[in-house]
Write a structure and sequence with these properties.
With 333 residues, this protein is α/β, with parallel strands linked by helices. The chain has three domains: 109 residues, no CATH class; 122 residues, no CATH class; 75 residues, Winged helix-like DNA-binding domain superfamily/Winged helix DNA-binding domain (Arc Repressor Mutant, subunit A, Orthogonal Bundle), CATH 1.10.10. Helices cover 47% and strands 15% of the residues. The chain contains 13 helices and eleven strands. The strands form three sheets. Strands 3-4-1-5 form a four-stranded mixed beta sheet. Strands 2-6-8-7 form a four-stranded mixed beta sheet. Strands 9-11-10 form a three-stranded antiparallel beta sheet, sandwiched between helices. Helix 5 packs antiparallel against helix 7, helix 9 crosses helix 10 and helix 10 crosses helix 11. The longest helix has 30 residues. The C terminus is likely disordered.
Length: 333
């Protein structure tokens, strides 16, 4: 069964890839992955560890976010911002919206917990649920935020290449071919929950949301409509076990040059300024031969300062969180 998402010319013009992380939306996808059984190599160690850390309030949220099936829309807004800002946004959800979302969810999920029906009228219960959202983020996503940022940067580099070389058509065709099929002017999204319906974007376009925890394709039927998909497959983490290194003093350019050498520092700063550049572009911008650029990129990659991945006939390079910390750069979001 599929969602058929219908595009107009205006929708194609307004289709885009999310610019940065959407923390609470990713929390929902992580909650679903936690309760599922797919991708055991990538997720089972993370699942085992996370289950031992869950608070009672976090378990309340999990009860509303099953591995498969719908959940109340107000809990996971598809929008950027800090976790604190987004949780406050959820806290401010009007009672009418809470009641309507829960009624819609209950119509599709008869097993919805009985206490959930009281959320619109019980302020204390709703406050516990919102606290659970913060706890769930801290448990499932926060320890891996640096890795998530790195994966998003790598995925965005691939999507930019697709957009430049093949336009929106290639973007929709190749974003997630296992679960999504572009049959102009309709994007067909295969659904594991048996849903079968037509969605018309009505000129608002579609937002594609790369995700570290999404294992298939997830349609968020809001405005604008969003479709989440797994980050570039060859860049997906083999296992979520490593924590981000603690922040340290930003290195000065002279320090970096002393540590890495002048040419290697130039390669690193070039990657920082041109995320997703190919080896050929890296060589041209750094003023060195392609073979030399490839050699220096290999050393930087082995040191964990950049990440490299193959896209068609090119190898693209992006700065890692460790590389950003060394250069003293930062990334919004």
């Amino acid at each position: 069964m599929v969602y058929r998402i219908h595009f107009t010319v205006q929708d194609l013009a307004r289709t885009r890839v999310a610019e940065g992380p959407m923390p609470l939306h990713e929390v929902e996808l992580a909650a679903r992955a936690l309760q599922g059984r797919s991708r055991p190599v990538q997720f089972d160690a993370w699942r085992h560890h996370a289950r031992t850390q869950l608070s009672a309030q976090a378990r309340m949220v999990l009860a509303l976010m099953p591995a498969v099936g719908c959940s109340p829309d107000f809990l996971s807004p598809v929008r950027a911002g800090t976790v604190e800002e987004l949780v406050e946004h959820v806290r401010g959800t009007p009672r009418e919206r809470i009641r309507a979302d829960l009624q819609e969810t209950a119509a599709q999920r008869p097993s919805l917990p009985t206490w959930a029906h009281q959320l619109a009228d019980d302020a204390s219960l709703f406050a516990d649920l919102c606290t659970g959202l913060s706890h769930l983020h801290a448990c499932l996503l926060a320890p891996h935020s640096a890795r998530f940022t790195e994966l998003l940067a790598a995925d965005q580099a691939v999507r930019l290449r697709q957009l430049l070389t093949g336009g929106v058509e290639q973007l929709l065709t190749r974003a997630n071919p296992e679960w999504m099929r572009w049959n102009p002017p309709v994007l067909e999204v295969r659904m594991v929950n048996g849903a079968d319906r037509d969605l018309h974007l009505q000129g608002e376009g579609l937002t594609l949301v790369p995700s570290m925890f999404c294992t298939r394709a997830v349609v968020t039927d809001g405005r604008p409509v969003a479709v989440s998909y797994p980050v570039t497959p060859d860049r997906h983490p083999g296992g979520l076990t490593a924590l981000a290194p603690p922040p340290g003093r930003a290195a000065r350019p002279a320090d970096v040059s002393t540590l890495l050498g002048r040419t290697r520092t130039a390669v690193l700063t070039t990657v920082a300024a041109h995320q997703g550049c190919s080896t050929k572009e890296l060589a041209a911008r750094a003023g060195i031969a392609p073979a030399s650029a490839s050699e220096h990129a290999s050393v930087l990659r082995e040191a964990g300062l950049i990440s490299s991945f193959r896209h068609r006939n090119s190898v693209l390079h992006s700065l890692t969180p460790l590389g950003r910390a060394l250069l003293g750069t930062s990334q919004e979001g």
